[in-house]
Each structure stands twice: as structure tokens, then as C-alpha cells.
């Protein structure tokens, strides 16, 4: 039997209003008056373990006519906002479960004490729940009183911490300073996590490189990222930044930029090996920028000239390597350089560079492949000897010790009369 109570449970009437049941009611009516008038003879009590309804309560009563189905508040949501659930920050609502009852039919707290109607509900204890979800498709009968409890699961966070290269701290556009290990972004993992973008920090003086699983930035993150099953601990990854403006090279687009007309002064940071089998680029006349290869390879690239070389022309992959240039930890493998010389002219053609200025920083830079030169009638090479086809600016190729040339690298000169001259580099 439903006990009479004064109109203090105003939240109950919100549901009645939602079902057009306030018509003709007086504000001083008792709850029993309203229930009797509209024949609301069935009832569902909703508990929340750890969450709360929109009006900040943890328990609600809803009354129904016999023959109706109860509301799944998280899905059906009547017009009244009081029926909606507030999101529990850092948790996901998993559904309504049947409540375990005592022999007297009262809901049991987690400590097995009873919640008795009329007493103050203690949300700190939590209500015991059955294993099965409550079936909201049932048809309520007169006198039914069901108890349901909403359950939540804690959701781990994805923490994105800062990693730096070439500097000890980072200052964003707002003047905020971050150090390695500082958390710069966090989000809750409720499913697959996709690439969050490159611009987590607003800064013009640093370049985002990539996301890594470890603080040493040795293992890149593979997207989408999924938290381990049943993992309640936060998951941490690292966003790596480098000081300065860099072009991140992870496919042939970056190589195209490197050999573009304006790319000779840029800074290039390789993230992986790059197969350039389908790519042909023009040679550079100078290079004054930086290539940080990080041990990766540029494979099968073809370098050529957009037109035949004219009188006094110089051609090579990098042209003059300026004093400000830095090229480190990169390999060009199976490279092809192809140049054609006009008739009745001379030209200077090298595989790697025309010259290297003092001050250029070159280390762990390896080149291997072939140089293919086609001469026009009465044209000749100004260098054209066995000792000076790899590098210009030296008396012989052996004088350049900063760039390693792979053994088996060749130079083929296709003479106008159909004969060929071939040189092979045999030292590693």
C-alpha cells in the first residue's frame, strides 16, 4: 500500500506533468489524491550508484497506470528535464539493473543493510544490483513496485604528455611554459581513440613531430588507439615537439617539398623509410637547410633536370651544400640521377654535390645508386674523369670523407657516338 505524503516530492510531479497529468490538480493536493484521481497504481523506484539526476538527486519515484511500460530514463527521457541523467565525469552509464531485495522486499545496500522507504537514502553505501539488466518492455500491473539501479563504470583517461627534442622546455603563444613529462591534453577513453591532431599547443616556435607510446619516443602510436580490455588505469602517450620550423617527412609529399624550388633552405625531419619509386624530382642548385634522417632511408628516388644542360651548367643532386646546411643520419639508396647535356657545350655533372662549403655539418649521410649522363654532339664534361664524378670541389672523390658512398654505385656516360663509359665506386 502506498503511504500518503504531502507535496514535498516535487520531482515526482515533474513526471506526471510530462504525461499531461497536472490538468486540474491543485497545489495543495496530497500525492495520494493525484494517484487516486489518475489511477496511477504501479510504481518504479530509480536509484543511482555514484551518479545523479539532473536535479542532483540520487533517487526518484515514478508512478504509472496499469498496462503501461516503465520508462528507461536514460533512453526514453520524458519531456521533464528532471528525468534526465547528469553525466558522471570520467564514467559511462551502462544501464538500469534489477535491485537485490531483502526478505521483506526492501532494497539492500552494498553492506547488506536495508533501505526502508521513508528513511533518508544513503548514496555513499550504494545499492546491490543483480547481474541482469532490468526489462523495460514489461507491462506494469496494478500494485507493481519495481526497484532499479543505474550502474556506472569508471573510464580511464588518455593522458598526452610532452616530449621535446633540441630544447628543455616549450613556451606556447600565451606564455605558458611546459617541460618534458607535463600533461598537455587529456580525454576519457570510451572507445577507439583516433588521431587527435598536430596542434595541441598553440606555438609558432616548435613543430609537432609525432605521438609515441614511450617517453623515449622510440615506438610510434598506431591509430586508432584502444585501451586494454578491463583496464581501469589511465593510458599515457607522448607528443613529441622539436624546436624550430620543420617539415615532417613521412611520405613522398615531403620529398617533393625538399626538392621544390623553394625547398633548399627548409628543415626536414624523417619519420620512416620512404619509397620514391614513382617520384621524379629536379636537382637542387644549392642546399642550405637541414635534413634530420633519424636513421631512415629514402629509396628509389629519381633526380633529373627539367631541360638539357647548357654551356657552363653544373648539375648534381644537392648542388652547393652551404655552410649553414646540416645533413645527418639519412641514406639515399638505389638513387638514380639522370642528366642530358646539349650539343656543342661543356657541363660539370656530379652525383651528390657541386661543392661543400666550410661549416656544413654532415654525419652518417650515405648515398648509393647510379649517375646517368647523356652527352650531345661535340659536348663534353668538364669534370668527366674517374676520380671526380661523385663530388665537386675536391681534387678527387676520395678527398670527401663526410659523405659515404655505397659500394657498387656507378656513373655511366652515354657518348653521342653510341659508346658508353662506365665508372664504378668500389669503396664502402
How would you describe the overall organization of this protein?
The chain is mainly β and 428 residues long. 5% of the residues lie in helices and 37% in strands. It is built from three helices and 30 strands. It has helices spanning 10-18, 31-37, 252-258, and strands at residues 42-48, 52-53, 59-64, 85-86, 91-99, 129-133, 145-154, 157-165, 170-171, 177-178, 183-188, 206-212, 235-243, 247-249, 267-270, 274-275, 280-282, 286-287, 290-299, 302-304, 313-315, 320-321, 326-341, 346-349, 355-356, 361-375, 380-381, 403-405, 410-414, 420-424. The strands form seven sheets. Strands 14, 15, 16, 17, 19, 20, 23, 26, 28, 29 and 30 form an eleven-stranded mixed sheet that branches. A five-stranded mixed sheet has the order 3-1-7-5-6. A hairpin with a 5-residue loop joins strand 29 and strand 30. The chain is rod-shaped, with a radius of gyration of 37 Å. Mean pLDDT is 88; it is low at 1-28.
